[in-house]
Amino acid sequence: MPTIPGNINGVLIEFSSNVNKNVDQKIIDVLRHVLSTNLASGHILTKVYISSANDQHTFPSRHVQGAGKAVDISRINGMKMSVFYPSNSTVKAITDALQNKFESFVHRRENFGPLFKKKLGNPHNVSGHADHIHFSVN
Ligand SMILES: [Zn+2]
Question: 75 - beta bridge partners?
Answer without folding.
Answer: 49, 80
